Amino acid sequence: MKQALLLVVLLYLQSAITSAQSVWQSYEPALPEVVGAFHLRTSSIDPSVAWTICAKYDVTANSYTQIFLDSLIFTKTGDGGETWEGGRIPMGLEPYGNSICPINADTAWATGLDSDFASYLLKTTDGGETWSRYLENGFIGADSYINFVHFFDDQHGVVMGDPAEAAPGSDPFFEIYTTSDGGEIWTRVSIDNIPPRIPDEFGADHLFDARGDTIWFGTYNGTTFSHLRIFRSTDKGATWSAFASNSHWPFSFADGQYGVGARQFTIIQTQLQLTTDGGATWTALPQLNLGSITSIAMIPGSRYIVAVLRTNNITGPFRTMLSTNLGQTWMQIGDGTQHAGNIHFSSPAIGYAGEWQPADHPTRMYRWAGNPLSGLFSGKELDAEVEVFPNPGEGSMNIKATILQPSDFLILVNDAQGMLVERRVVDNTSLLNAQFDLHGQPAGAYTVTICTEQGSLTRRFLKQ
Description:
Distance between the termini: 71 Å
Structural class: mainly beta
Shape: elongated
Helix content: under 10%
Largest sheet: 6 strands, antiparallel
């Protein structure tokens, strides 16, 4: 095994490279390799902290083939995405990192495997300069395979792996460990507290989500690769239940009850599923026939759903879409240029994402652009007087809005299919006057969405 590399901290460029009108504010890192964001998580304690584990790929138009390096690359922000820094994680020969969990700007955990399939659980307490290995007496069986780590706070955490024997000749069951002292001592969860494995069932790399004390992970059939079940714990990993599932990959939860999952049929057909009982049952939503799901997130607080879609890996468009009615209808809110993956939101105002490895520019990390978009995501109704006139109209559409205190406005105009026609930001005013020229658009119904950081309103416009 090669000697572990010393980590070198590398500062990100501090200036954003996109305009204020972008949905995602993007930053290009100064990293030793052009990589793609593989797994991004926000701290459960401090939402201004996010860490990302990255991967290197050989990129073609329709595929990503991973290239294994001598150490992993990570990125992080400790100030809500204003600045970023990154470095390396030593994890054996040709490591494969599959999850990362930040505690704060200095402390984080990471999991992965080396080329010999030895599992690693690592921790840093100095911002990533050095990493120490933990739980070396776990995940050592022939079938052991670590999938992810998550901490609910700075003391209570859980690590999950594939089914493995607890003793020679015993029945394999999911290898799950919990800690209540910040990771110094880990205890394997008893077979009595985990549903029995079904034939050929395995966990999946970083296929999990957590809200509060509740955590979920998904499983699949190792032969057919079909999805099998979703496991749930409501007590920080101490006890588990499992529910049948064949269409929820990836999935995201807003709270302990509401979540959304996706199943990909073709490059343009995606079937979404909704749960309102914490994953016990799922209901099919209308198909979203606009592209493959790059990433999906249900936002805490509003339970709105954000999805990024693609029809190819390189050229786009990469549509950022929003549903305000639990997936029944969608509206495009991004201009199609930003390939944001690994979306993770702590609230309507705080969200991060990382780009899949690009073919023609350096690595990019994203933060949610914030106000006035936070009002759009909050689910709150904007207290404003709004006029859209003339309505119906032949092509010229005027919007007038009055609010009590000056604020930045965002205006979205979408067609009947939800596609973005025009997007405009108006800065710092209490009296909005805006005109849109829709003469080049077909006749029909259009949706006008007006928002500030206080909330949003929707109006209809009929073009004759």
